[in-house]
Queue: 3 jobs
Job 1
Amino acid sequence: MPKRRDRIRMSQAEMWEFIRGQKKLQVATLNRDGSPHLSTLWFAVVEGEIVFETFAKSQKLVNLERDPRIAVLLEDGSAYEELRGVSIAGRAELHRDPGLLRRFAAEIIRRNRPEVPEEAMQEAAARMAAKRAAVVVKSEKIMSWDHRKLGGVY
């Protein structure tokens, strides 16, 4: 019989379908004293990588400038037998180029606010790019789980 861990692991296709279906990304960086700094924000998947933007002076960006290690978590489910998620550990690639920031911001807005007209979305992306930086999560280790695969048996 396969190990429980192997039974709940998502396939690559399941994992990316799950990621694309989520709205919030939990982001962990390391403070100067080594303690974790956690925040939750919107994201997009661009060219197969998770991307988010944040204020250029935010604590998470200050932390990533000092130490690029990052962990992100996407999860859902209320009851134990419904829990599923993806945890990614890796390195943050920081971007401040205004053109690239506008592109990433537009992708994030388009994904999370599809009702925003394209023209308004482009204007909002340009405003966001003026004071923000983008982070691309370069994954090094990915873990996934889907307790629904156990059929209620533990």
Note: The chain has one domain: 4-146.
Job 2
Amino acid sequence: MTALARRRRESPEADVAADHPHRVIGRLIKQVFASLVRRIDERMQPLELTAMQWEPVLLLSLKRADTVAALARESQVDCGGMTRMLDRLEEKQLLRRRRSEADRRVVHLELTVKGQKVARAILPVVFEELQIHLRDFRKDEQLMLIELLARMLKNGARDA
């Protein structure tokens, strides 16, 4: 008899706890995210971008942020870590920093021409990988998934 079978026979409630929907959902969300990021990261190698570098470039190109603080918030990374990341992107000549004339404490970020070219290559990769992960999902299932994930985020934000 295997260890798992013995544990199930001795403590059936342990098996129920192990398969509790919250654990399964959390694990699946983490695995889907990891799969997406891993596949996207592999495809970013020809662009010479690492796992942490392609997201800020994409967010800047989509105008979702234009300062270190806004990028850090959007990426859920601390400002120090984001600053180090931006140093590397600046070394690769993908972005430049510009001090705000209105408030010298604020540093605005903008993509260079090279950065804009790289950014245009990122979005199709992200879309293709999402399509792969959503293969065989009907349109109504995709819409339901969006609604459910948005509700989860809203619930989490409510207590934050």
Note: The mean pLDDT is 88.
Job 3
Amino acid sequence: MERLSSARRDSERGDIVLSWIAKLAVIFGLAGIVLFDAISVGVTHSSIADQGSYAAREASETWGATKDLQKTYLTASAVAAERDSLNIVDAKSFTVDVDGTVHLRISRTATTLVLYRIGPLKKLAHVEESASGRSVG
């Protein structure tokens, strides 16, 4: 009788350990997904700012050669799309200063695991940055 009771207690201890391991696995898994999404949005912010500045500089070079606003915008859009096909240059915010400095807003939705799939949180995955640049040549 004593042996049966002892065996039962040992198996119950194993069940408790397994349940804690399962809970920890779920917690770490969820934390990993949240961390991945946060890093993805942060990296997208950084890269889109650089890509926008590069597109603005290239567009400024086109402006210096042609003084054509439409060609300048098309250059900025093409250069931004070359860097990442999901980049979008906002036409409404696109301006060129007298000295040839191009100002634009560039946007892209970050590649995330969960964030962009949840309706109310979808806007957090959409990254938009202002950029400007001027050709020195």
Note: Residues 2-133 form one domain.
